[in-house]
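TA notes, week 10

Several of you asked for a full example with nothing omitted. So below is the full record: structure tokens for the whole chain, then the designed sequence directly under it. When grading your own attempts, check the secondary structure regions first.
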């Protein structure tokens, strides 16, 4: 015990200030989230009194109303489909691309690296209108041939657009991780008779699991909460994703003023992201800090 006490460093003023700032930031984040959860189980009449008061009883009917009356269930299904497709396509494309760009030297390698890096500086909000106009023109051509549409109001196309917008950052992150791995692993695999594809899939990708989980989490949050592209490319009400549906619910509640139902919708949007983050928190930290080799 005495040895442990001797090893403890005394608290300095700077450390105390850091702790105070961290506690303040935690409260700024946690308190609004807790308030939304509490507000989601309040009856509508309780919102006209003290907004910080605890609910008199847990009124879970708000979730049923948000799920059924406001069609949050169909919106969530659309979000699940788009997010799952987007992440699947992103992983399938970005993993081989990152591995090749980081481990092999070829003539056009610098060009592709610069191209992906340039994509990091493109704000997606600025190119939504050109994307819409391009897809609309392609749909005009299809309408002339088949009297139908394909590129707009298509969940797969929306997932493909999400993949394209997330590709530069994902390739940048994965390439940086692959560069930290020693080439001894690959050379040993080649000696054992493995080809490039087998080495990539069975040796390198399992070692990059923390980094892959980090990429999946970041892009899940981005795809799940994305609003502008989804609102622009999906005009049919039955195809709208959860953030767009939530905004429609909030707009509709301005006249009906069903606050409990509105906050229940917010909770429905937040729960998947919070649950995923809690499940992979350790892997996320590991993926951001882990190098290729351990001593």
């Amino acid at each position: 015990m005495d040895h442990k006490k001797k090893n403890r460093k005394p608290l300095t003023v700077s450390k105390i200030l850091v702790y105070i700032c961290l506690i303040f930031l935690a409260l700024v984040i946690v308190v609004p989230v807790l308030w939304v959860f509490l507000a989601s189980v309040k009856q509508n009449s309780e919102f006209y009194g003290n907004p910080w008061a605890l609910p008199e009883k847990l009124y879970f009917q708000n979730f049923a109303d948000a799920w059924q009356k406001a069609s949050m269930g169909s919106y969530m299904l659309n979000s699940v489909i788009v997010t799952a497709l987007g992440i699947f396509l992103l992983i399938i494309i970005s993993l081989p691309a990152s591995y090749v760009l980081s481990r092999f030297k070829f003539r056009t390698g610098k060009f592709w690296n610069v191209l992906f890096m340039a994509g990091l500086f493109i704000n997606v909000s600025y190119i939504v209108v050109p994307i819409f106009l391009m897809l609309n023109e392609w749909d005009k051509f299809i309408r002339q041939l088949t009297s139908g549409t394909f590129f707009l109001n298509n969940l797969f196309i929306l997932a493909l657009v999400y993949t394209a917008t997330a590709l530069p950052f994902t390739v940048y992150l994965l390439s940086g991780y692959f560069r930290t791995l020693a080439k001894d692993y690959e050379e040993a695999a080649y000696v054992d008779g493995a080809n490039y594809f087998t080495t990539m899939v069975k040796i390198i990708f399992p070692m990059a699991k923390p980094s892959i989980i980090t990429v999946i989490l970041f892009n899940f949050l981005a795809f799940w909460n994305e609003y502008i592209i989804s609102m622009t490319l999906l005009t049919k009400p039955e195809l709208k994703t959860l953030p767009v549906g939530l905004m429609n619910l909030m707009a509709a509640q301005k006249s009906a003023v069903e606050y409990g139902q509105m906050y229940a919708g917010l909770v429905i949007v937040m729960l998947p992201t919070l649950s995923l983050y809690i499940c992979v928190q350790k892997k996320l930290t590991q993926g951001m800090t882990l190098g290729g080799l351990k001593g």
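Residues 143 and 149 are 6 Å apart (CA to CA). Use that as a sanity check on your answer.
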